[in-house]
Design brief:
about 70% helix; mainly alpha
């Protein structure tokens, strides 16, 4: 039960952070990404605040054998930059720049309805397509 409560609390805190920082506002995000147009630098402060928080989290995690709430945890070991990572990063960036949403803020903004629902449906279709294509590539 503790892992479920920890996940819920973490997700709630993350979602509230997205709302407060206005990351669920696609116009705000596109304004930040439009560095050659009407650039809105305010989200840079969000990132500047997130970096030290993440650094502390990584430092604490490096000293622990497992997370507090999950004793049987296997950390990822893949650390190479490969073709799927680069292609995925490019596609993610293009989608984020065109629409102003990435998965976390889109799921948080679902409560607003409207075009966000269409984006989330398209995102889920894309995730399913990727899963299908990647299975096909692994068999060959």
């Amino acid at each position: 039960m503790l892992p479920i409560l920890a996940a819920f609390g973490s997700g709630l805190l993350f979602g509230l952070g997205l709302i407060v920082s206005q990351m669920i506002n696609p116009g705000k995000v596109v304004g930040f990404l439009d560095i050659f147009g009407d650039w809105d630098p305010s989200l840079a402060f969000v990132m500047a605040a997130a970096v030290p928080v993440a650094a502390v989290g990584y430092a604490i995690a490096a000293r622990r054998r497992s997370p507090l709430c999950v004793p049987n945890y296997i950390a990822p070991t893949h650390s190479q930059i490969d073709r799927p990572l680069v292609i995925g990063t490019i596609l993610f960036g293009i989608g984020w720049g065109l629409v102003g949403y990435c998965p976390g803020p889109a799921l948080t903004a679902l409560t607003l309805g409207g075009p966000t629902v269409l984006f989330v449906v398209a995102m889920l279709i894309g995730m399913g397509a990727f899963r299908g294509f990647s299975r096909g590539f692994q068999r060959h």
